[in-house]
Amino acid sequence: ATRVFSGVQPTGHLTLGNYLGAVRRWVDEEQYRANALFCVVDLHALTVEHDPARVRRLSRQAATLLLAAGLDPERCTVFVQSHVDEHVRLSYLMECTAGVGEMRRMVQFKEKAAREEAAGVRLSLLTYPALMAADILAYGTDEVPVGEDQAQHVELTRDLAVRFNRRYGRVFVVPRASVPPVAARVMDLQDPRSKMGKTAALRNGGAGVVHLLDEPDAVRRKVMRAVTDGGTDVVYDRDERPGVANLLDVLAACRGDGDPAGLAEAYGSYGALKRDTAEAVVELLRPVRERHAELAADPGYVDGVLRAGAERARGMARPRVDAAYEAVGLLPVG
Ligand code: ATP
Ligand code: MG
């Protein structure tokens, strides 16, 4: 059986990028694998400046959205990272396995550290990949379904698992990342050379970021105003024509069709491409938004799912984390 783990940070409202890059596959495919776990990774949200009340609100909202999108708590485990102590326990051993140099080389660290400079770069932003490795390795995960931007962190997780196993004996499964064939990196509609991101939504007043809970008219407005490139013909070229390529990726992903370049041939103008993309996104998000409204009316239900999920996750993580503690030479509780 394939063990699956993945997560989403409560750093902002979930975006179309999160959905197409990650969440949709969790719902459509990954939750049917044995013992899949999906986590609101709230500890990671503390690596940057944040408002406590907002993180708490966004954590519940993210969990509610995962259920609204179709994760079935009878099939998979949905939980909040900070509810399961094993993540932090194992994170320390990962910090003892990783080197400072490899942490500094992470692209996400470089990008977010540059943004955080005014507020002060937190040490946890540098060590973030150690906690992420712990998230994944604690469960004996085989496969980590993520967007392309997280592939480097999963690669580091593999290195840490291999290194730990070589030093102390085989404790961890060596996981692999899986990224979707299309829309693995959805770009900001106003700045198609940057990734669409929850945090990036604060730039441009969020005009380039589609949120899962945006009203249909807001979605249409954002897509219709997307920055396209010089030229008028519709061609698929991610380097030279990133704005148009992004719309083609999104439309292909919405249609469940893996061929954005083929789609380009069907369009003679940007206007038609934008209109079809806007409608496709509106229809994609409609059921998620509707179901979210229902579930949000019953926070007790969501809390119950998270409580049960944390309990199950704890039971799955504890034996392996205990084994790792013993393997490195820590004295077990007698
Ligand atoms: P932040 O800006 O706080 O990092 P984010 O939007 O990048 O937020 P994460 O919680 O870091 O969201 O990532 C959750 C999942 O969504 C990960 O699997 C990540 O790879 C994926 N993802 C994030 N942004 C995109 C995107 N633009 N396109 C495709 N996948 C994405
Ligand atoms: Mg991110």
From TrEMBL:
<keyword id="KW-0436">Ligase</keyword>
<dbReference type="InterPro" id="IPR002305">
    <property type="entry name" value="aa-tRNA-synth_Ic"/>
</dbReference>
<keyword id="KW-0963">Cytoplasm</keyword>
<dbReference type="GO" id="GO:0004830">
    <property type="term" value="F:tryptophan-tRNA ligase activity"/>
</dbReference>
<dbReference type="GO" id="GO:0005829">
    <property type="term" value="C:cytosol"/>
</dbReference>
<protein>
    <recommendedName>
        <fullName>Tryptophan--tRNA ligase</fullName>
        <ecNumber>6.1.1.2</ecNumber>
    </recommendedName>
</protein>
<keyword id="KW-0547">Nucleotide-binding</keyword>
<dbReference type="InterPro" id="IPR001412">
    <property type="entry name" value="aa-tRNA-synth_I_CS"/>
</dbReference>
<dbReference type="Pfam" id="PF00579">
    <property type="entry name" value="tRNA-synt_1b"/>
</dbReference>
<feature type="binding site">
    <location>
        <position position="186"/>
    </location>
    <ligand>
        <name>ATP</name>
    </ligand>
</feature>
<keyword id="KW-0067">ATP-binding</keyword>
<dbReference type="GO" id="GO:0005524">
    <property type="term" value="F:ATP binding"/>
</dbReference>
<dbReference type="InterPro" id="IPR002306">
    <property type="entry name" value="Trp-tRNA-ligase"/>
</dbReference>
<comment type="function">
    <text>Catalyzes the attachment of tryptophan to tRNA(Trp).</text>
</comment>
<comment type="subunit">
    <text>Homodimer.</text>
</comment>
<comment type="similarity">
    <text>Belongs to the class-I aminoacyl-tRNA synthetase family.</text>
</comment>
<dbReference type="InterPro" id="IPR024109">
    <property type="entry name" value="Trp-tRNA-ligase_bac-type"/>
</dbReference>
<keyword id="KW-0030">Aminoacyl-tRNA synthetase</keyword>
<feature type="binding site">
    <location>
        <begin position="147"/>
        <end position="149"/>
    </location>
    <ligand>
        <name>ATP</name>
    </ligand>
</feature>
<feature type="binding site">
    <location>
        <position position="135"/>
    </location>
    <ligand>
        <name>L-tryptophan</name>
    </ligand>
</feature>
<dbReference type="GO" id="GO:0006436">
    <property type="term" value="P:tryptophanyl-tRNA aminoacylation"/>
</dbReference>
<feature type="binding site">
    <location>
        <begin position="9"/>
        <end position="11"/>
    </location>
    <ligand>
        <name>ATP</name>
    </ligand>
</feature>
<keyword id="KW-0648">Protein biosynthesis</keyword>
<feature type="short sequence motif" description="'HIGH' region">
    <location>
        <begin position="10"/>
        <end position="18"/>
    </location>
</feature>
<dbReference type="InterPro" id="IPR050203">
    <property type="entry name" value="Trp-tRNA_synthetase"/>
</dbReference>
<feature type="binding site">
    <location>
        <begin position="17"/>
        <end position="18"/>
    </location>
    <ligand>
        <name>ATP</name>
    </ligand>
</feature>
<dbReference type="InterPro" id="IPR014729">
    <property type="entry name" value="Rossmann-like_a/b/a_fold"/>
</dbReference>
